[in-house]
Design a protein that fits this description.
The structure is a single chain. The protein has 143 residues and is of the alpha/beta class. It contains five helices and four strands. It has one domain: Metalloproteases ("zincins"), catalytic domain (Collagenase (Catalytic Domain), 3-Layer(aba) Sandwich), CATH 3.40.390.30. A four-stranded mixed beta sheet has the order 1-2-4-3, with helices on both faces. Helix 1 links the parallel strand 1 and strand 2. The radius of gyration is 15 Å and the shape is globular.
Length: 143
């Protein structure tokens, strides 16, 4: 799995941490082992704008996923599955609130975002339970 990481100087995330996480996901969800995706770390103001533009929610959130399968671009790279955008300051606050390290929080958010990119959702209870089972399976590899 190839992961492009877009980050500012303010939010420097160790690429080996991200690559290791996605290597585990590639083993557990082998259908996507050869996919490409991007991850961006932004501030709360930027994610608030995106959240309003795409979800009509005028507030920051921790993570947004934009799946390429939802795109109308007929010329897109078929291996590219989408982009995960994380509000780093929001994630840091959430980690503190939940008594986790920032790495633990990012692992959760990246896993959640990835599962959205590959088709998981949590609108219906049955879908949420299915998604949570896969999240737990992936995250258990880091306990």
């Amino acid at each position: 799995m190839q992961v492009a990481v877009n980050q500012t100087k303010s939010y420097r995330i160790d690429r080996s941490f991200i690559n290791k996480l996605f290597a585990v996901m590639a083993r557990l969800v082998p259908k996507y082992a050869k996919c490409e995706l991007s991850v961006a770390f932004v501030d709360n103001a930027e994610i608030k704008k995106l959240n309003f533009r795409y979800r009509k929610k005028n507030k920051p959130t921790d993570v947004l996923s934009f799946a390429e399968r939802d795109s109308n671009d007929k010329f897109s790279n078929r291996r590219f599955i989408g982009e995960i955008i994380i509000a780093y300051p929001y994630a840091r606050q959430q980690a503190r609130r939940n008594h986790r390290t920032i790495r633990q929080e990012l692992r959760i958010l990246l896993t959640h975002g990835f599962l959205h990119l590959v088709g998981y959702d949590h609108i219906k209870l049955s879908d949420r339970l299915r998604m949570q089972r896969v999240e737990k399976k992936i995250l258990s590899k880091f306990s």
